[in-house]
Amino acid sequence: MSHENRSPVLAVFDFDGTLTNRHTFWRYILFIRGPFVFWGGMLLLLPRILAVLLKITPLMQARRSFIHRFFAGLAISQESLFAQKYVNDELPGYLRPQALRRLRWHQAQGHVTALVSNSPENYLQQWGRSANFDIICGTQLGSDGQKMNGEVVGEDCVGEEKVRRLRQQLPELDNYYIYVYGDSSGDAALLAIANAPFYRNWY
Asked: Buried (b) or exposed (e) across 144-174, using 16+ Cβ within 10 A?
């Protein structure tokens, strides 16, 4: 009997580039803000973009500037409606059919499935629930209860934070036989804890 057969099984999926064929966050910003505001904001953020390209500013630090620029002051109720529309109308065209088949295979086997991504939970939660994930962890965007404040709550869900967030949701993580599907350096910490790591090589 294999170790997998003796242990409960967990399948962990990254989102952007793994379940989807492109990055979804900046496309979400474009979707909710429209091209005029989006590209105008990008021009204002050009120094930040250049600093990242020149390796002066870390990507996650610059990303927070983008979040503040485009989300600060946005009503929570309005953003939630945008998120639902994005999940219904845009995301289906970005999903990898072969990745969804792999997800469905795990679910058919009765495996616990987790979606762990640096994408914001604002739309990640809505899509993840529709795809029947058991656990959903993403970057959390802050608010004052009525409006978004343009800040990130805690840490960006990338690198070691992905593992920490997963353990927070599943304290008995070490008891599982773990599959992990990822496509970037941001998934390295998750892939390191996997019994069956798949890095761009399962489809």
From this structure: eeebbbbebeeebbbbebbbebbeeebeebe
CA distances from 6 to 2, 108, 176 (A): 7, 18, 9
With b meaning 16 or more CB within 10 Å and e meaning fewer, what string describes 71-106? Answer: beebeeeebeebbeebbeeebeeebbeebeebbeeb
Residue showing tokens 């979606």: 115
Q: For residues 23 and 42, what is the distance between their CA atoms, to the nearest angstrom?
A: 16
Model pTM? 0.90
Per-residue pLDDT of the chain (203 residues; tens, 9 = 90+): 345 567 899 999 999 999 999 999 999 999 999 999 989 888 888 888 888 788 887 888 888 988 999 999 999 999 999 999 999 999 999 999 999 999 999 999 999 999 999 999 999 999 999 999 999 999 999 999 899 999 999 999 999 999 999 999 999 999 999 999 999 989 999 999 999 999 987 66
CB 179 within 8 A of CB 99: no
